[in-house]
User: Which sequence fits this backbone?
């Protein structure tokens, strides 16, 4: 081996050693970094473990003290006297005076069942029973005059008897009852809606006045019969505006009743503000749709349920539903739920 060969061999060995040192240094650097990360992770885990040792202690005080409320229910659109034949609407509903009485009684019973059995810890300062009208089927349409089960006078007498029984049931349990009333459109005595004497020329108004006479000696019952279309009702610091809802017209297309109700709510609010008599919640019936508190409106449905007109108009099928909630000092309408008074087996159809 020549001197040059020896030099080349030594140089090659030196380069190999240098490469090996760089590889080892790279490994050492990576291990050092990994070791540091493991130390950091261990420190974090140690800190978290230390935190677990001192959780907060939360306790719940027993309910039943300091909570007050007023049981509030809406009996709307009963259409007493009307007949709905199940075979004409796909057997989704039926209605006649016998069924109407069953549903009316079940409605009043459930007003108290919800208050006493489903909500605990509330001491009630009485109740409010709102009557927004269309208590009778009426004869404003020719087909109703032909198919009603009875005359309107007979329906008036039934309505007074059944509602009076319900009022007695509620006030005997709750101690006091406020009954605000406005008239509907099916019960008017004129062919077209009127503005002057709108309430007084209406069979709903007659029912209310007869109920007012029935309870005139019972100081526990306060009847509020509106002489106009609307009525302001106060519960603690909350003011409700009770109306029937027939002043809100329209409702075609996909939006359904949403558009006319929203527009009607806006106009009612603007009118009341300009009169210096604002309110918090609009309560209404008429549309046969129950909807809880939202956008300033509470809707009650109908005791009658689906009928032939709604069926041929392709409206959604909904069960008979009536609004129920507890008015509280802190939040106004609370614990809203609809009452569903229908029982097909008991009604026998």
Assistant:
């Amino acid at each position: 081996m020549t001197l040059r060969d020896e030099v080349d061999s030594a140089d090659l060995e030196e380069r190999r050693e240098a490469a090996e040192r760089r590889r080892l240094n790279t490994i050492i650097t990576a291990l050092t970094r990994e070791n540091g990360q493991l130390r950091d992770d261990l420190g974090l885990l140690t800190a978290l473990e230390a935190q677990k040792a001192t959780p907060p202690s939360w306790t719940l005080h027993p309910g039943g003290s300091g909570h007050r409320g007023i049981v509030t229910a809406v009996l709307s659109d009963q259409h007493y006297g009307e007949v709905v034949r199940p075979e004409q609407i796909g057997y989704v509903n039926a209605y006649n005076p016998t069924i109407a009485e069953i549903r009316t009684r079940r409605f009043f019973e459930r007003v108290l069942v919800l208050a006493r059995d489903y909500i605990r810890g509330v001491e009630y300062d009485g109740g409010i029973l709102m009557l927004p009208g269309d208590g009778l089927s009426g004869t404003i349409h020719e087909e109703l005059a032909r198919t009603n089960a009875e005359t309107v006078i007979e329906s008036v007498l039934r309505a007074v008897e059944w509602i009076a029984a319900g009022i007695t049931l509620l006030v005997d349990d709750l101690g006091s009852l406020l009954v605000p009333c406005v008239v509907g459109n099916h019960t008017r005595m004129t062919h077209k809606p009127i503005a002057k004497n709108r309430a007084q020329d209406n069979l709903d108004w007659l029912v209310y006045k007869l109920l007012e006479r029935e309870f005139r000696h019972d100081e526990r019952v306060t009847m509020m019969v509106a002489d106009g279309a609307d009525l302001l009702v106060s519960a603690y610091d909350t003011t409700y505006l009770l109306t029937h809802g027939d002043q809100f017209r329209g409702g075609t297309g996909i939006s359904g009743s949403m558009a006319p109700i929203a527009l009607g709510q806006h106009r009612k609010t603007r009118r009341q503000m300009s009169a210096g008599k604002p309110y918090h919640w609009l309560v209404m019936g008429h549309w046969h749709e129950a909807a809880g508190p939202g956008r300033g409106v509470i809707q009650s449905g109908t005791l009658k349920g689906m009928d032939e007109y709604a069926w041929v108009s392709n409206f959604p099928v909904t069960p008979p539903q009536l609004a129920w909630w507890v008015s509280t000092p802190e939040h106004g309408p609370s614990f809203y739920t609809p009452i569903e008074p229908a029982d097909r087996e008991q009604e026998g159809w």
